Amino acid sequence: MRKSFLILSALLLGVGATAQKVEFEEYTLDNGLHVILHQDKSAPVVVTSVLYHVGAKNENPDRTGFAHFFEHLLFEGTKNIERGEWFKIVTANGGQNNAYTSDDKTYYYEVFPSNNLELGLWMESERMMHPVINQIGVDTQNEVVKEEKRLRMDNQPYGQLLPEVKKNLFSKHPYRWAPIGSMEHLDAATLEEFLAFNKKFYVPNNAVLVVAGDIDKTQAKKWIEQYFGPIKRGADVERVMVEETPITKEIRAEYQDPNIQVPMLVQAYRIPSMKTRDARVLEMISSVLSGGKSSRLYKKIVDEKKMALQLASFSFSQEDYGIYFIYGLPMEGYTLNDLTKEIDEEIEKLQTELISERDFQKLQNVFEKNYVDANSDIEDLADNLATYYKLYGDINLINTNIDIYRSVTREEIREVAKKYLSKNQRLILDYIPEKKANN
């Protein structure tokens, strides 16, 4: 039986190695805009996307929330797209669009039937060349962002989890604030400050354009030159890496959330950049600990001992630093300290014992599947191409990143767990219901 399992695993590895080769072509316009083309004739759709290398970490500490604000603001309209018409144009032409902001990037995309490629390129060039940034748009989007914050954070159970972890793990780096930022900062900002932010970051030499799907590359290149070529290059964006002081003593913190009844235990560790090998190993460690119902933490604490309603761990990967999370909701009769004790025992096992050959092979199979799934959707593939180029600095990782995971050893898993998941390098956050004042 064991021999058959290993043979099947080897076959899966072989399939994964060849099934997902992503072909692409890349070049750079004279104004610095990097262009990536990926042809896929399997369906008559096309994705046009632009990633700007600007996120919450690029903000002034007294003006947080700008990058996320611009995610909304740059849908307001352009010189040639009237205010309120953006989404109508997309929908009327059979398309859909969206955008998101992180600490490191802002990403916009449209999905159209392939016969509307020119429209998608024109709209993104309009956003880059001719955005209309005025007080009406700023005031409108200010209210939109405030409502989003109320819905997603202020009135959402556990909605302050990530901001509370970040502000305790980072004291110097701009990762210490959340991308949605401060409403007070946005209220205080002037129109001139928004215009300056746009001029600095939303320029061709700080962006990458990805066109993926059912395209004629020769025609696509002509349209790209026609619509994006005339856009003027901006000043080079100066990037300064802010170094954090190593954590050498356990940090204890508490947050009271009025929106919850069940307390949450949170263990968080500051980990290295997502571009490092160790960050990939930590992703594998996360899978060992809580990747599914057969994982160590879930099986022991949730399934067998029934001490927790929910338990999970994950790596929050970012360009400069990452965060490794472990969190759990205790069952009635158990405390946050009870969960901490059980979790620590499993981490110590990872730090002192090699995982079994069988568990290691299962782990490799999980990451082979993740590799296939990551690029199976044309929208995700376009995002991955942009991210690997702009944030990782190596676009071909879309094909070779899996080789890093394949090369990880059982000994490496043990050593990385020992290196980063020590008690004196972590935050313990007691995320609890709001305490009622005594009458």
UniProtKB/TrEMBL annotation:
Checking InterPro entries in the record gives:
Metalloenz_LuxS/M16 (IPR011249), Pept_M16_N (IPR011765), Peptidase_M16 (IPR050626), Peptidase_M16_C (IPR007863)
Which terms does the record give in the GO molecular function aspect?
Answer: metal ion binding; metallopeptidase activity
Its BP terms in the Gene Ontology are:
proteolysis
- Give the signal sequence positions: 1-19
Report domain Peptidase M16 C-terminal positions. 189-365
Q: Give the record's family classification.
A: Belongs to the peptidase M16 family.
Supply the name of the protein: Insulinase family protein
